[in-house]
Protein 1
Amino acid sequence: MVLITQNTKTKKSEKTSPEYRNRIMQFAPHSVVQHRNDDGKLETVCKHSSPECRALCLYGTGYGIFENVKHPRMERTRYHHERPVEFKEKFLTEASNNARLASKASKTFAFRPNGFSDVLWENVCPELFDLDIQVYDYTKYPYHERPVESLPSNYHLTYSRSEKTTRKMMHDNFSNGRNVAVVFRDKLPDFYAFLSKDYYNKYSYEMVWNVYSVIDGDVSDLRFNDHSPVIVGLTAKGNDIKKMESKFVIDNDYKCFGDIKMHLNYDNFGGDFSLEENKKTGNVFKVSSDGNANSIPLDSATICYDYNRVHSGMDDVVFLNSALHHVMLG
Ligand code: SF4
């Protein structure tokens, strides 16, 4: 059994970034492989998975529907649970072989050990990080359970949002320099926004929104090359996920806006003007500067939102289309 392999996404990454040898290790997620620990508890390889992410996990989509793909993923997971010492030895041998092959070809070995899992490799196999390689993963662990200072310097994590993610968790990740991956229904928006942490105290009649650029996470899997702060946008894959009503997958149809006025604080922006946006629903954004936001970085801005106009269905998510993109970056 081979532990470290390629998939469609790693192959794509190698095309866009030929300086990397990109590989992944794929398990069967959460408790698909049933194994009880010494206390009789069912083991999971995704401790912070949510009901919706388990229901919609990519594990069962694409080639994952075929037995010859599913089977090795289950075998690897079983091996990890049942013979951890042997597993670790093989895991390290394969990782160093890949590192050697990469170096021979003057490349860097970029390795994602958590394909369909969320294992704490920094604890399970710290020796992995002694190799001259770049390791990266998506994780659903809240930031404080895997802070940057607890990780080896060659281990990069991107937080993966689920329906259980709170606004505070988003802030915790961003304020500590960790990007957040978000699954969108059909296409990616240019921006994703959520309410600022302290909007209640600072503004009695307005809501404050933090806005982040969305990058296309499907182009490459090499997340450690992303700048920060950004939202790593992924489009929903698989028939179930495309149809299902879900809080895990974000709809991108602007419906939640209502007729609102927005006040954008951004240091590069001068002068008042208004934009007519989203002809489909007839929403109008009014954007103006108060010259009050000099410390806000390029990819983040604060929006004050007229509280009286809050649409009843409004939660902590809005989307801004490309016209605002030009305002912010132009
Ligand atoms: S945490 Fe990730 S791998 Fe695990 S079930 Fe959820 S989506 Fe799948």
Protein 2
Amino acid sequence: MKSALFLAALSASVNAYWLMAVDDLFDGVPQRVDPLVYPGQRAGHVHKILGGKNFDFEVPTSDVLRQSECTTTPIAEDHSNYWVPSLYFQWANGSYSSVGGGAVIYYLFPDTAGSTTPFPDDFRMLSGDPSLRSFNESSFAQQAVTYLCLNWDAGGETTRHNEIPVKDCPAGIRSQINFPSCWDGKNTDSADHKSHVAFRSGGPDSGDCTDPNFPVSIPRIFIEIYWSAQDFTTFKSQAKNPSQPFVLSNGDELGYSYHGDFLNGWETATLQKAVDQCNCNMYGDPTCCGDAGVFTYDPDHKNGKCTKDLLITDEPSTGLIAALPGVDASNLSTSASEDASSSTSASAAAASSAAPSSLNNASASSGDSGSREASSSRCSTIKREERDVKRHARTHHRRRDFTFGSL
Ligand SMILES: *[C@@H]1O[C@H](CO)[C@@H](O)[C@H](O)[C@H]1NC(C)=O
Ligand SMILES: *[C@@H]1O[C@H](CO)[C@@H](O)[C@H](O)[C@H]1NC(C)=O
Ligand SMILES: *[C@@H]1O[C@H](CO)[C@@H](O)[C@H](O)[C@H]1NC(C)=O
Ligand SMILES: *[C@@H]1O[C@H](CO)[C@@H](O)[C@H](O)[C@H]1NC(C)=O
């Protein structure tokens, strides 16, 4: 655990970026689907799934994704899919309540036009490892996963952790993952969905593509999820583990197994233009790139919110649930030899009036009540993120070469 968190190293190679608030494709209902790792079948655990509507049990090609009727990203030419595990609060009796979360996705890339190659057709990748239950600090892949314990109170301090924070987080928990951004230039996928890509020379968020086996610089994707963990603070005494009551959807109570998946569904020419030209706002606000015609920025989803019917309907995954879908209760993470015996006998998914109504709210609630921007119609998640970023930038007098991805 580190608390000196905004000492992000400056990086010569990453300057420009944009960030975008992205909605859940299944309207906040995580689905036990992972076409990359479990093609054609139910996945081992549920995920929060974002992006193009043609997501499915089988991996869609880039062409199929591009034909999606809509996307939950605010950039109309991005029909990619992104997914991460979801988060649950674990009650003492073995039941779980889903934690709502809002997503922000960053695209980071060097300022120099021509230096970043867009993802090729059918490009896919996985960052992180769902089987990890320990931390290896010299592994770039593990450095790519971090958590912030958000605290925006006056005098409060936001802290960064390699595991799910073991403390109260007044403004919630932000899980973060960096994807590799150096590509072998040949393979669009690999057996482990990782071997065709590598992290940059300085780690997940700094350096260059200096390894001759991975010479091609692709956009760096960084995904943040703002989990409304603070909604549960008053219920901690009723948790199975009151000091750290949360668990990832795969049963990991430590958080080292957090991971992210990406399927390319971009219009290639648009992504090329974006990494060459989208460089006009030091806080990553994509509005100016939209105005300049680099891409179609549509944060309000003018043609209607993009959602998709559930792929799995017989397996509750939100609200109060008796077990984590797909996860053997006897195999919950860690060292803990805590009692998980009651979870298998509980009846599934009784909607309980005991659970607070806010617990199943998929929209991230704002942790900053004094917002000057409260009347704006723009998405609350991105507003909060921009505020957060601006505050950091002000505090640390940084310019655009601040490596936000390392927060
Ligand atoms: C138990 O968890 C480990 C680590 O994630 C996994 O490899 C194994 O398949 C799981 N076993 C069962 C029965 O779920
Ligand atoms: C930790 O990560 C480093 C770098 O990837 C690797 O060389 C080393 O073998 C890992 N250690 C363990 C115990 O897995
Ligand atoms: C477990 O505890 C929670 C919180 O008190 C309650 O809402 C839920 O109904 C309980 N579940 C079972 C199966 O008793
Ligand atoms: C969910 O949260 C949003 C934003 O905080 C709020 O406007 C909405 O009323 C909430 N919905 C429920 C069902 O609690």
